[in-house]
Amino acid sequence: NAGVTQTPKFQVLKTGQSMTLQCAQDMNHNSMYWYRQDPGMGLRLIYYSASEGTTDKGEVPNGYNVSRLNKREFSLRLESAAPSQTSVYFCASSVDSRNQPQHFGDGTRLSIL
Amino acid sequence: EDQVTQSPEALRLQEGESSSLNCSYTVSGLRGLFWYRQDPGKGPEFLFTLYSAGEEKEKERLKATLTKKESFLHITAPKPEDSATYLCAVQADQAGTALIFGKGTTLSVSS
Fold first, then answer.
1. Integer Cα distance of A70 and B58 in angstroms
2. What is the pLDDT of residues A17-35, one digit of tens each?
Protein backbone atom coordinates (compact mmCIF):
# COMPACT_ATOMS: atom_id res chain seq x y z
CA ASN A 1 0.00 0.00 0.00
CA ALA A 2 2.00 2.96 -1.27
CA GLY A 3 -0.63 5.64 -0.56
CA VAL A 4 0.91 9.04 -1.36
CA THR A 5 4.42 9.00 -2.81
CA GLN A 6 6.60 12.11 -3.01
CA THR A 7 9.86 12.57 -4.88
CA PRO A 8 12.54 13.56 -4.18
CA LYS A 9 12.82 13.10 -0.41
CA PHE A 10 15.63 15.66 -0.06
CA GLN A 11 16.89 18.47 -2.28
CA VAL A 12 19.31 21.37 -2.00
CA LEU A 13 18.95 24.26 -4.43
CA LYS A 14 20.71 27.54 -5.01
CA THR A 15 18.74 30.78 -4.99
CA GLY A 16 17.16 31.35 -8.40
CA GLN A 17 17.13 27.71 -9.48
CA SER A 18 13.89 26.03 -10.47
CA MET A 19 12.55 22.68 -9.40
CA THR A 20 9.46 20.49 -9.60
CA LEU A 21 8.28 18.36 -6.68
CA GLN A 22 6.37 15.28 -7.71
CA CYS A 23 3.44 13.63 -5.97
CA ALA A 24 1.42 10.54 -6.90
CA GLN A 25 -1.40 8.74 -5.09
CA ASP A 26 -2.78 5.27 -5.71
CA MET A 27 -5.99 5.53 -3.67
CA ASN A 28 -8.19 6.79 -6.55
CA HIS A 29 -8.74 10.05 -4.66
CA ASN A 30 -10.26 13.02 -6.43
CA SER A 31 -8.64 15.82 -4.40
CA MET A 32 -4.97 16.57 -3.89
CA TYR A 33 -3.09 19.21 -1.88
CA TRP A 34 0.32 20.75 -1.33
CA TYR A 35 1.33 22.02 2.13
CA ARG A 36 4.50 23.41 3.61
CA GLN A 37 5.55 22.84 7.21
CA ASP A 38 7.84 25.30 8.97
CA PRO A 39 8.98 25.28 12.61
CA GLY A 40 6.51 27.13 14.81
CA MET A 41 4.10 27.72 11.91
CA GLY A 42 2.24 24.48 11.49
CA LEU A 43 1.11 23.14 8.13
CA ARG A 44 -0.04 25.73 5.61
CA LEU A 45 -1.85 25.06 2.35
CA ILE A 46 -0.07 26.21 -0.80
CA TYR A 47 -2.36 24.96 -3.58
CA TYR A 48 -5.00 22.32 -3.99
CA SER A 49 -6.85 20.49 -6.72
CA ALA A 50 -10.41 19.59 -5.81
CA SER A 51 -10.74 17.38 -8.86
CA GLU A 52 -8.84 16.50 -12.01
CA GLY A 53 -8.58 19.55 -14.23
CA THR A 54 -8.96 22.15 -11.46
CA THR A 55 -6.47 23.93 -9.23
CA ASP A 56 -6.89 26.70 -6.66
CA LYS A 57 -4.70 28.82 -4.42
CA GLY A 58 -4.36 28.14 -0.74
CA GLU A 59 -3.02 30.32 2.05
CA VAL A 60 0.57 30.76 0.77
CA PRO A 61 0.67 30.41 -3.06
CA ASN A 62 3.21 33.11 -3.96
CA GLY A 63 6.30 31.75 -5.68
CA TYR A 64 4.71 28.42 -6.59
CA ASN A 65 2.81 26.87 -9.47
CA VAL A 66 1.04 23.54 -9.69
CA SER A 67 -0.09 21.09 -12.32
CA ARG A 68 -2.69 18.36 -11.90
CA LEU A 69 -1.26 16.03 -14.53
CA ASN A 70 -3.98 13.39 -14.20
CA LYS A 71 -6.08 11.93 -11.40
CA ARG A 72 -3.04 10.33 -9.75
CA GLU A 73 -0.39 13.05 -10.04
CA PHE A 74 -0.08 16.60 -8.72
CA SER A 75 3.20 18.49 -9.07
CA LEU A 76 4.50 21.64 -7.39
CA ARG A 77 6.95 23.91 -9.18
CA LEU A 78 9.27 26.56 -7.81
CA GLU A 79 10.22 28.77 -10.76
CA SER A 80 12.91 30.83 -9.02
CA ALA A 81 13.71 29.44 -5.59
CA ALA A 82 14.26 31.80 -2.66
CA PRO A 83 15.71 31.04 0.80
CA SER A 84 12.26 31.75 2.30
CA GLN A 85 11.03 28.64 0.50
CA THR A 86 13.29 26.40 2.58
CA SER A 87 10.78 24.08 4.18
CA VAL A 88 9.33 20.58 4.30
CA TYR A 89 6.72 20.09 1.60
CA PHE A 90 3.90 17.62 2.01
CA CYS A 91 1.48 16.33 -0.57
CA ALA A 92 -1.88 14.96 0.53
CA SER A 93 -4.97 13.47 -1.07
CA SER A 94 -8.58 12.84 -0.07
CA VAL A 95 -11.65 11.17 -1.52
CA ASP A 96 -13.12 14.61 -2.19
CA SER A 97 -12.60 18.13 -0.91
CA ARG A 98 -15.43 18.26 1.62
CA ASN A 99 -15.26 16.85 5.14
CA GLN A 100 -12.96 13.97 4.22
CA PRO A 101 -9.65 13.17 5.93
CA GLN A 102 -6.53 13.97 3.96
CA HIS A 103 -3.77 11.37 3.70
CA PHE A 104 -0.21 12.60 3.55
CA GLY A 105 3.04 11.54 1.97
CA ASP A 106 6.33 11.59 3.87
CA GLY A 107 7.46 14.92 2.52
CA THR A 108 10.25 16.56 0.54
CA ARG A 109 12.86 18.37 2.59
CA LEU A 110 14.00 21.34 0.54
CA SER A 111 16.88 23.66 1.40
CA ILE A 112 17.59 26.77 -0.64
CA LEU A 113 20.98 28.37 -0.19
CA GLU B 1 -10.41 34.69 11.61
CA ASP B 2 -10.45 30.90 11.88
CA GLN B 3 -7.96 29.64 14.46
CA VAL B 4 -6.82 26.37 15.98
CA THR B 5 -4.80 26.32 19.23
CA GLN B 6 -3.27 23.22 20.74
CA SER B 7 -2.07 22.83 24.30
CA PRO B 8 0.26 22.01 25.83
CA GLU B 9 3.07 22.48 23.29
CA ALA B 10 4.97 19.61 24.88
CA LEU B 11 4.01 16.88 27.32
CA ARG B 12 6.22 14.37 29.08
CA LEU B 13 4.59 11.30 30.61
CA GLN B 14 5.72 8.17 32.33
CA GLU B 15 4.58 4.91 30.78
CA GLY B 16 1.08 4.19 32.07
CA GLU B 17 0.39 7.81 33.10
CA SER B 18 -2.84 8.84 31.36
CA SER B 19 -3.39 12.41 30.16
CA SER B 20 -5.22 14.58 27.63
CA LEU B 21 -4.22 16.89 24.80
CA ASN B 22 -6.40 19.89 24.00
CA CYS B 23 -7.39 21.46 20.69
CA SER B 24 -9.50 24.61 20.90
CA TYR B 25 -10.90 26.21 17.78
CA THR B 26 -12.72 29.34 16.71
CA VAL B 27 -14.25 28.85 13.28
CA SER B 28 -17.41 29.81 11.48
CA GLY B 29 -19.25 26.61 10.73
CA LEU B 30 -17.23 23.56 11.67
CA ARG B 31 -17.43 20.90 8.98
CA GLY B 32 -14.97 18.47 10.54
CA LEU B 33 -12.16 18.15 13.09
CA PHE B 34 -9.25 15.86 12.35
CA TRP B 35 -6.53 14.38 14.57
CA TYR B 36 -3.20 13.29 13.12
CA ARG B 37 -0.04 11.73 14.52
CA GLN B 38 3.32 12.79 13.10
CA ASP B 39 6.58 10.94 13.73
CA PRO B 40 9.95 12.66 13.11
CA GLY B 41 10.81 12.72 9.43
CA LYS B 42 7.38 11.44 8.40
CA GLY B 43 4.15 12.88 7.13
CA PRO B 44 1.05 13.24 9.32
CA GLU B 45 -0.83 9.97 9.82
CA PHE B 46 -4.61 10.25 10.02
CA LEU B 47 -6.17 9.12 13.32
CA PHE B 48 -9.75 10.40 13.69
CA THR B 49 -12.45 12.58 12.20
CA LEU B 50 -15.12 14.18 14.41
CA TYR B 51 -18.06 16.00 12.86
CA SER B 52 -20.42 17.10 15.64
CA ALA B 53 -20.39 18.00 19.32
CA GLY B 54 -20.71 14.97 21.55
CA GLU B 55 -19.07 12.64 19.08
CA GLU B 56 -16.33 10.29 20.32
CA LYS B 57 -13.90 8.01 18.47
CA GLU B 58 -11.50 5.41 19.91
CA LYS B 59 -8.48 3.57 18.64
CA GLU B 60 -6.35 1.45 20.95
CA ARG B 61 -5.14 3.78 23.76
CA LEU B 62 -6.47 6.93 22.09
CA LYS B 63 -9.91 8.48 22.45
CA ALA B 64 -10.97 11.72 20.77
CA THR B 65 -13.93 13.81 21.91
CA LEU B 66 -15.53 16.96 20.54
CA THR B 67 -17.46 19.88 22.04
CA LYS B 68 -18.62 23.08 20.37
CA LYS B 69 -15.36 24.85 21.19
CA GLU B 70 -12.70 22.19 21.66
CA SER B 71 -11.56 18.65 21.20
CA PHE B 72 -9.58 16.41 23.51
CA LEU B 73 -7.31 13.53 22.66
CA HIS B 74 -7.22 11.28 25.70
CA ILE B 75 -4.29 8.89 25.99
CA THR B 76 -4.85 6.00 28.39
CA ALA B 77 -1.88 4.12 29.84
CA PRO B 78 0.53 5.40 27.18
CA LYS B 79 3.52 3.42 25.98
CA PRO B 80 6.84 4.75 24.65
CA GLU B 81 5.68 4.01 21.09
CA ASP B 82 2.95 6.64 21.54
CA SER B 83 5.66 9.31 21.55
CA ALA B 84 5.01 11.62 18.57
CA THR B 85 3.63 15.01 17.68
CA TYR B 86 -0.17 15.09 17.61
CA LEU B 87 -1.77 17.56 15.23
CA CYS B 88 -5.32 18.87 15.23
CA ALA B 89 -6.91 20.37 12.12
CA VAL B 90 -10.34 21.76 11.30
CA GLN B 91 -12.26 22.27 8.11
CA ALA B 92 -14.65 25.20 8.26
CA ASP B 93 -17.26 26.74 6.00
CA GLN B 94 -15.36 29.97 5.33
CA ALA B 95 -12.04 28.22 4.74
CA GLY B 96 -13.46 26.19 1.89
CA THR B 97 -11.54 23.02 1.34
CA ALA B 98 -8.48 24.00 3.39
CA LEU B 99 -7.55 22.28 6.63
CA ILE B 100 -6.49 24.76 9.32
CA PHE B 101 -3.82 23.11 11.44
CA GLY B 102 -2.75 23.76 14.99
CA LYS B 103 0.95 23.78 15.80
CA GLY B 104 0.80 20.42 17.53
CA THR B 105 1.57 18.83 20.89
CA THR B 106 4.79 16.86 21.16
CA LEU B 107 4.29 13.89 23.45
CA SER B 108 7.19 12.01 25.02
CA VAL B 109 6.50 8.82 26.95
CA SER B 110 9.33 7.31 28.95
CA SER B 111 9.51 3.80 30.35
1. 36
2. 999 999 999 999 999 999 9
